[in-house]
Amino acid sequence: MAALACSLCLPAHAADTSIAQQLSHWSTQAGQPGNAQRGQAFFNNRHGGEWSCSSCHGTPPTGAGRHASTGKAIDPLAPGANPRTFTDSARVEKWFRRNCKDVLARECSPAEKADVLAYLASLKPPF
Amino acid sequence: MNALLPRTLLAASLALGAMLPALADGGRAMPRSVPPAYTQECASCHVAYSPSMLPARSWQRVMSGLERHYGTDASLDAATLQQLSTWLQSYAGTYKRVAEEPPQDRITRSAWFERKHRKVEPAVWQLPSVKSAANCATCHTGAEQGRFSDDDLRMPAGLSARQRQAWAD
């Protein structure tokens, strides 16, 4: 019960990172800078499966998305439309892990993550 | 004596409060205390289903297979998994109607769910505005708060004239 009560006090977002930091992190790991054009193609590609990233996040992901199977509304993914995205590194890791497995049936490489982030960072208002 | 009275009243109101969800909505209401992780982790993709909609054994299977969660990866870190499993187990459905484990541990395959929705034509579930029987909130405007009363219903977009007529039945 004490553990439950304590977890209720934790902030929902740690705000320990930004899209620029994440982009630089994965670009370093990949040994090449993220490329927005490659990221856009990757984001919209189904990779031989049923879904692309855009199936849930929309094309382009600057407005509210919709979960491809449940229909639940999803907050906009592009930081230009939603400043809360990519501000919590644990959350970023978790959703890349889950969603890459859903779309590609494997985890994404640092180069792929850097490309997608370069694409998302390039989406700026007005949309 | 005066000091005892408020305590007695408090005990009585707590007992009543514990009974209220069962009385109000057949025991399917959301518990008052919902871990933020439940909203963050589970309700990102679907409605925050009330724990009482599935029996404990179904929740146990759901939570032990989150890597393959109805076609998606919904895996959690160990601490969050433990916290949410404990919460779901303690509020799982126990009353007669929910005690039965539905096929594939799907709420939408429960006998009570199918009976409640027997007048909904299969085509209605396929509407773009609905997409899935799991998308409770399209029609049940109080779904996120665990309210499923007929008074909180809204017609989904795209119903035919005949389907709209049947809605009133």
Automatic annotation (TrEMBL), chain A:
UniProt keyword annotations, A-Z? Heme, Iron, Metal-binding
Under Pfam families, the record lists: DUF1924
- List the signal peptide residues: none
Q: Which residues form the Cytochrome c domain?
A: 34-124
Annotated spans, Disordered: 54-84
- What's the protein called, per UniProt? DUF1924 domain-containing protein
- Organism ancestry: Bacteria, Pseudomonadati, Pseudomonadota, Betaproteobacteria, Burkholderiales
